[in-house]
Design a protein that fits this description.
By secondary structure, the chain is an alpha/beta fold. Helices cover 49% and strands 7% of the residues. Helix 15 crosses helix 16. Bound molecules: flavin-adenine dinucleotide. Keywords: Chromophore, FAD, Flavoprotein, Lyase.
Length: 429
């Protein structure tokens, strides 16, 4: 007799709510992970740092488990089929895991829950990925907040030390398995990438001065914890505890993360439609050649091109530059935000559906709490303000030469064109 702990977006042993509960069940715990073919088969490019990251993080979890005289079991297939196998092989008393809030994950979990229910096996899920779930921070009448500032205010007023206290995990009652089955990247049909997994740490030097330096891309003074938060190799409670102690601005970024998580939960239609319906009327130009130039970083706007090159080369782009390139695509080129969102989803190591979607809709002006459509980022002014001596541009686009790269579109012309297109869309409805 045993219980299963199913790792998903919580690839760590410390401060892990579902794991703590599984270990407290009184039964031996079998730790497992499923490489879900329904997700992996959709990734056309088999050089994918996210998959490599997961595989390496699991290897690291496994070596810690081996120190505790057990081992991780990994599987490759559809979750439901894996549960058929596992429940046939073991006398499973219950399955434990942490909640995943994305629409596809909710469907997957419903299928697994129903299957287990049918076999009389309880499926226990826990809040772990966020401090507050979708329905914990709402307006007085119970409806969701759709504007960040009042949401953040309520979030802070509800926060108590128990919300960010670490969950201690007692690593004793494991199921003794004599061998681990860590599936390799090659087994999955993926290639090794340039990524090296390191257990994430919070760099105090960065967060203490986060508010001063975060907007200057050349300084690279943000934490790069996005991927760790995405796959749960770091606990959100730990981050919030540090943020509370050291930097309120950094805390506000963690609240943005939860804001967009609850928006996606309450308004799943945002996955493919504008939060503000009337923005569906925008007559996007959707010029494929210009889109390709944007993707490659060949727009002739140095900050945009440097950003896209950083993304293409490293899987990361500084937040300030993400805002500039996103605004440029939607407003200067009048290309549908969904094209840019999909490109980021393919390229960003820290890709997260709710954050990516929320921020793209913000940049396009069609989001829940978006910048007003008539505020159009001027890439040149942004460069003067945040990369005055072109240190960022030169890092990612060293061969850039002002004389040789005429802009693909004139700023003033593009600005007027965008204003016309947006105004018309908003008038038509
Ligand atoms: P830090 O600045 O150190 O912030 C710490 C953490 O707070 C981040 O890792 C992230 O989890 C969270 N966070 C910070 N800013 C935001 C924000 N605006 N919205 C939601 N969460 C935030 N962030 C993602 O995690 N995944 C995405 O796919 C993503 N796509 C984006 C697309 C666009 C067009 C824009 C403008 C922003 C996007 N962001 C996304 C938000 C932000 O740019 C990144 O979280 C941040 O740059 C990651 O760097 P960092 O880990 O050093 O973050």
């Amino acid at each position: 007799k045993l219980v299963i702990f199913w790792f998903r977006r919580d690839l760590r042993l410390e401060d892990n709510t579902g794991l703590q509960q599984a270990l407290a069940s009184g039964y031996p715990v079998l730790p497992m992970f499923i490489f879900d073919t329904e997700i992996l088969d959709r990734l056309v490019n088999k050089y994918d740092r996210r998959v490599d990251y997961i595989q390496q993080a699991l290897t690291s979890v496994n070596s810690a488990l081996q120190d505790a005289h057990t081992a991780l079991q990994t599987y490759h297939g559809k979750p439901i089929e894996i549960f058929e196998q596992v429940t046939a092989a073991y006398d499973v008393q219950a399955v434990y895991c942490n909640k995943d809030y994305e629409p596809d994950a909710i469907k997957r979990d419903d299928t697994v829950r129903n299957y287990l229910l049918h076999k009389n096996i309880p499926f226990h899920t826990y809040k772990d990925h966020v401090i507050f779930e979708q329905s914990e921070i709402t307006k007085i009448d119970g409806t969701p907040y759709t504007v960040y500032t009042p949401y953040a205010k309520k979030w802070l007023s509800e926060l108590k030390p128990e919300h960010y206290a670490a969950k201690s995990v007692d690593l004793t009652p494991w199921q003794k398995v004599d061998h681990s089955s860590i599936i390799t990247l090659a087994d999955l049909g993926f290639k090794k990438t340039d990524l090296t997994f390191q257990a994430p740490e919070i760099d105090l030097n960065i967060i203490m001065d986060y508010d001063k330096y975060r907007n200057f891309p050349a300084l690279n003074r943000t934490t790069h914890l996005g991927i760790a938060l995405r796959f749960g190799t770091i606990s959100i409670r730990k981050c919030v505890a540090f943020a509370l102690q050291y930097n309120a601005t950094w805390l506000s970024e963690l609240i943005w993360r939860e804001f967009f998580t609850q928006i996606l939960h309450h308004f799943p239609k945002v996955v493919d439609t504008c939060f503000k319906a009337k923005y569906e009327q925008i007559n996007w130009r959707n010029n494929e050649h210009e889109f390709e130039l944007w993707c490659k970083g060949e727009t002739g706007y140095p900050i945009v091109d440097a950003g896209m090159r950083q993304l293409n080369l490293t899987g990361f782009m500084h937040n300030r530059v993400r805002m500039v390139v996103a605004s440029f695509l939607c407003k200067h080129l009048l290309i549908d935000w969904r094209w840019g969102e999909a490109y980021f989803a393919e390229k960003l190591d820290d890709y997260d559906l709710s954050a990516n979607n929320g921020n793209w809709q913000w940049a396009a002006g069609c989001g829940c709490d978006a910048a007003p459509y008539f505020r159009i980022f001027n890439p040149t002014a942004q460069t003067q303000k945040f990369d005055k001596d072109l240190a960022y541009v030169k890092t990612w686009y060293p061969e850039y030469d002002l004389q040789l790269t005429p802009p693909i579109v004139d700023h003033t012309f593009a600005r007027e064109r965008a204003l016309r297109a947006y105004k018309q869309a908003l008038q038509d409805t």
